[in-house]
Amino acid sequence: MKGSGILVTYPKSGTIWLKAIMFTLVNRKKYVIKENHPLFSKNPHELIPCFEFDLYLHDQIPDPSSIPSPRLFATHLPYFSLPKSVHNSASKLVYLCRNPKDTFVSLWHFINKLRVEKMGSCSLDEAFDMFYKGVSPYGPFWDHILDYWNESKKNSDRILFLTYENMKEESSVHIKRLAEFLGCPFSAEEEESGMVEDILKLCSFNNLSNLEIYKTGKLIYGQESKVYFRRGEIGDWTKFLSPEMVKRLDQITEHKLSGFGLKI
Ligand code: PAP
Predict the structure, then answer these.
(1) What region holds the Sulfotransferase domain (predicted)?
(2) At CA 76, angle to CA 128 and CA 223, rounded to 5?
(3) C-alpha angle 19/236/219, rounded to 5°?
(4) Engineered SS bond to 107: which of 12, 64, 163, 224, CB 3.0-4.6 Å?
(5) CA–CA separation, 80 and 23 (whole Å)
């Protein structure tokens, strides 16, 4: 891979999954997929630093040379908030989007898992109101994905737009697209040897969530690794959202996204 790869998501869109896949893909010559692969001892959030949490939060001028090549980064920043240095660089951006209903349900569970006890829990109605109004450090969900979608249409060599649902349903098609985009396509020998399936299996929800380090480990800010693995399914929202919430999310999605050719 030439240059850096930057993975962008709105929170709870499958960041950790795509981090695991991208890390394994670009490092597949260095780390053979077997028991001593870094994913067995490190959480993907530790393997791929996030600009706003891991790099710029502590160190105003992080030293990129300390990050092993090929360099991968992640961010939740909206397109217009990316620094000029990213816009002017040759870095490749991979955007992963997830349907708003599952993203919201995942976010609501996550907020409650991280809340300190004395704050009490955040009700579904309260969380819904904030999500619907776009109250988030990263702005409204719909604007976030639409900006990256539009940019990916203008500049498809630079931005690859993926969806969680397509990644789940046609995993091998999209992991191959991702490998091509990052400049490390699978060779015929790799495909014949089952490399694509091996990577997908290694990074699958069932595999990662059952590893000891993800069941009991903690990340540097003290949050438990297991909070990043809940169900990992499409359509889990049906168990939580009221018909009124579904109607409002469908309407705002239609209102914000219609006319842009993006179906989520
Ligand atoms: P982040 O943006 O805070 O880093 P992120 O990793 O995007 O979080 O979201 C976690 C979601 O991805 C969870 O979804 P859920 O709440 O609907 O279950 C989590 O279960 C899901 N997830 C984690 N690992 C995988 C995986 N390997 N495959 C599919 N989904 C996964």
Answers:
(1) 6-261
(2) 75
(3) 35
(4) 12
(5) 26
Q: Which of the following is catalytic: 37, 45, 58, 76?
A: 76
Residue ranges per structural domain of the chain: 4-257
Cβ atoms of 230 and 206 within 8 Å: the answer is no
Give me the sign of the Cα torsion angle 169, 48, 40, 229: negative
CA nearest to 16, candidates 175, 205, 216: 205
The residue whose CA has the least distance to atom 27 of ligand 1 is: 205
- The answer to whether the bond into 70 is cis (omega within 30° of 0) is yes
> Which atom of ligand 1 lies at the shortest distance from residue 204's CA?
27
87 catalytic, yes or no?
A: no
- Locate 114 and state its tokens: 């991280």
**Tens-place pLDDT, residues 30-54:** 998 887 899 998 989 889 988 887 7
Could you read off the pLDDT of 173-210 as tens digits, one per residue? 999 999 999 999 999 999 999 999 999 999 999 999 99
Per the CATH hierarchy, to which homologous superfamily does domain 4-257 belong? P-loop containing nucleotide triphosphate hydrolases (3.40.50.300)
